[in-house]
Design brief:
The structure is a homodimer of 157-residue chains. Chain A has 157 residues and is an alpha+beta fold. The relative contact order of chain A is 0.22. The interface between A and B is medium-sized, with 31 and 32 residues. Chains A, B: InterPro entries: MoaE_sf, Mopterin_biosynth_MoaE. Chains A, B: It catalyses: 2 [molybdopterin-synthase sulfur-carrier protein]-C-terminal-Gly-aminoethanethioate + cyclic pyranopterin phosphate + H2O = molybdopterin + 2 [molybdopterin-synthase sulfur-carrier protein]-C-terminal Gly-Gly + 2 H(+). Chains A, B: One of its GO terms (molecular function) is molybdopterin synthase activity.
Amino acid sequence: MEKNFWITNEAIEINDVVNKVVRPEAGAVNTFIGTVREFTKGKRTLYLEYQAYASMAEKKLEEIGREIDQKWGDAKTAIAHRTGRLDISDIAVVIAVSTPHRKDAFEASRYAIERIKEMVPIWKKENWEDGTLWIGDQKETKSYKENTPIGEDHTND
Amino acid sequence: MEKNFWITNEAIEINDVVNKVVRPEAGAVNTFIGTVREFTKGKRTLYLEYQAYASMAEKKLEEIGREIDQKWGDAKTAIAHRTGRLDISDIAVVIAVSTPHRKDAFEASRYAIERIKEMVPIWKKENWEDGTLWIGDQKETKSYKENTPIGEDHTND
């Protein structure tokens, strides 16, 4: 796989992401892995569904990589985000950032996940025990009406 | 493998460490991977050698896990550290911490690597182009005379 930033319907292999950033100049790789949590504020999630505007999402992930380059200089970033149905503990996103020294790897990786949630067109549908809810953006500040069918009402912005 | 904290002479598989901490309660896993960097302040490393007082090192890694439990509450930690000869880009250490939310995972993982360098009896021998140097502790504040043979002069305090 050539791309360092990709959206996929398949299970993400952590090594596929980490291997993109390991290099002789790096002494540190920080990896953030987002997994499906069963309970959120006491509500039980059965599974999640992620949808993405994939081509735009990959462009936005690349943009985050460029932002990290600018802010941290000698950093290399790779990000994979999954779409489709994810069960409890499945991996939704893997970020890997390598830098010469560890402080920068931690900071840049944290930056990446915050930016993903701010700017990448990926939507999440919570399937709880007692209903469903589309989360309109990943900051979870907007939400749409319950039981909205997949593919409706979830344009970018 | 039953242990969550271990010293090994074999290559560390990142998944072996991450799989110890993935769980339904967690939405975030932060992983720190330390790799062998080729250049440090302009000096070229050919390879490194790590030695550990293994049984004590594993106890100290467990202690770090307990410290994280106390500080962050709902966190699960696993750490593997390699010994022996490591070539450029080889993995020396993998830390994985899972928590319900990402902020804690980043913080606890960072805490773990700082504590490893402070308190775990592992010694590193730099094999540079122009000589060798034992690094007496992982904070790299103490160093021993050049060309000390492996196994001499490097007891645990």
